[in-house]
Amino acid sequence: MNREIIDINDFTILLEEASTDKALVDSCYFDEPVIAIAFYGAGDVGLKVKYGKKTKEFHHTKGMVLSFYADEHVAFEHHVSEQKPLQCLVIATTIRNLDKLPNGEGQFLEKFLTQLVYPKDHYVEGPVFNMTPEMFLLVEQFFSNTYQGEIKMMFYKSHMTALLSHYFGQLASQKSSEIDTSNLEKIYQAQEILLSDLENPPSLTELANKIGTNTNKLKIEFKAQFGVPVFKYLQNERLKKAHNLIKNEQKTIQEAAWAVGYDSLGSFSNAFEKKFGYRPSQV
Predict the structure, then answer these.
(1) What does the pLDDT read at residue 181?
(2) Rounded Cα distance, 46 and 48, in Å
(3) I want to staple 87 with a disulfide (CB 3.0 to 4.6 A). Which of 43, 62, 96, 276 is the partner?
């Protein structure tokens, strides 16, 4: 388990990363009430939120953004296993610090996350959605940076501001184009179908048929929820999986490319560099 805590202005950043060959549970508490946004990166750790006699469970956290209010009575349990590593970035502040936040974040928190600013329980949950590719890349960079000292703090400060900007932008976009609950379930079903077979995904028409909608509606509502078209999302997920295979599972570039459905090493390397800013050989 690697855990790092960074205080920047009136925010606290918590970085947690863990992998294991056997199941383990990591519990986390806050020693004072906080408003926080948790960004779950490449891992797919299980999460249980416990407060009083209540428990909220999340079984698939990869790419998830979870906003919440929590006091000292709330326990966050990460259930880590070989297939479900942990990679979590939390940006937190306290209600008393809202007016002190440097870039006006307090007004956005009050505008978009009113239920967290004025909580009615030990744990109050705000919006839960999947990160856009831009947000996912920023989160990955938090865990892969190698800077030290003042440069490291500058890096964290700039990336935290960028990440929060994308987050509030996504909330604003969702508010202006909300999808009804039944359609939202179909969109998440489409996401699960894509993630279940990255190597041989269905065509757009096949995917629409599987979830009981038409291709035009699928394209519009998928982009409204995830911020990118269906197959741009698929490409991003393929490349993120390939990155993990090369970095954490010691696969060759050829093996990683094949595992996510690329037949051409040239196409794979070009797409990889366009997304991450460096070639697969530099991982």
Answers:
(1) 60
(2) 7
(3) 43
Range of the domain at 127: 2-176
pTM for this one?
Answer: 0.64
User: What are the pLDDT digits (tens) for 116-148?
Assistant: 999 999 999 999 988 988 999 999 999 998 899
Which residue among 176, 211, 233 closes a domain? 176
pLDDT, tens digit (0-9, with 9 covering 90-100), for 75-123: 999 999 988 899 999 999 998 888 888 878 888 898 889 999 999 999 9
Helix (H, G, I), strand (E, B) or coil at 272: helix
pLDDT, mean over the chain: 89
The Cα angle at residue 174 between residues 68 and 135, in degrees rounded to 5? 65
- The CA distance from 187 to 111, in Å, is 26
Give one DSSP letter per residue of 203-233, joined into a string. PHHHHHHHHTS-HHHHHHHHHHHHSS-HHHH
Q: Assign residue 92 the CATH number of its domain.
A: 2.60.120.10
Asked if 125 and 250 sit in the same domain, the reply is no
Tell me how far apart the terminal alpha carbons of the chain are, to the nearest angstrom.
22
Q: Are residues 11 and 136 in the same domain?
A: yes
If one counts the domains in the chain, the total is 2
Neighbouring CB atoms inside 10 A of 254's CB total 12
Does residue 115 sit in the same domain as residue 243? no
112 and 91 in a common domain: yes
CB 126 within 8 A of CB 65: no
